[in-house]
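The instructor's notes for this session suggest beginning with a concrete chain rather than abstract definitions. Hand out the sequence below and ask the class to guess, before any prediction is shown, which regions might be ordered.
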Amino acid sequence: MKSIFEQLGGTYHEESGYLIPDLELPAEKEKPIGVYGQRHLQYLKDCHKGIYLNLLISGRLNGYLADIDEQARDMFFRLVNEYAERQGVTEQLKAEDQMLWVYKINAVRNAAREVVNKELIFV
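After discussion, reveal the predicted structure:
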């Protein structure tokens, strides 16, 4: 008598006296994932295992993470430009007082990174 798995076309192989089902994840086109995608992946693994497993098993994890990474990078650069303009962080300031420029641009980047993390990465 065949199991439901075998009736649906599944096969097994034997290892150490146990029958192990032959399972494969669906093929997925590999896309590069940057730092924001990696952070979101770790967040999913730690806090949302169900969503992580669903994306992994359905073969959509890599594409999803690549999209999150792209959105996060775009948002980060847009926010940095907006905040820098509002704070007066310009090339002229960079030429006149480099240390002040570094201090201000780092503050702008940290603020933008915090918004990106809150809005896209850790949700």
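Then share the key points. The chain is about 70% helix and 5% strand. The longest helix spans residues 61-87.
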